[in-house]
Amino acid sequence: xxxxxESGGGLVQAGGSLRLSCAASxxxxxxxxxxxxxxxxGKEREFVGSITYIAxxxxxxxxxxxxxxxxxxxxxxxxxxxxxxxxxxxxxxISYSYTPPRADYWGQGTQVTVSS
Length: 116
What we know:
This protein is an all-beta fold. It has strands spanning 3-7, 10-13, 18-25, 34-39, 46-50, 62-67, 72-77, 86-95, 102-106, 110-115. Strands 2, 4, 5, 8, 9 and 10 form a six-stranded mixed sheet that branches. It has a four-stranded antiparallel sheet with strand order 1-3-7-6, with no helix packed on it. Strand 4 and strand 5 form a beta hairpin. It is globular, with a radius of gyration of 13 Å.
């Protein structure tokens, strides 16, 4: 089992950058497929990406990386747009057999707000 906690959200102007971090506990962090999701008000949850995949909506602007030694997953967000405003969730144990992917473990979410 793994627990994940996100941090780094906040308010930023359009065109700005933020980096989200996801700290995971558990000795088997490296064995879990991990990624980021987001959910905007009134919209369905969207899979943002993982180490090997980035959604078209953020491609070229967002980058995902992980540090297994530090049990941490990162989401670097550049050139932010107002439509990126959402609660961002870190997830572990992702299954790609579903559309959108599902996950076994979720963080509490961190709010990202992009002002125009």
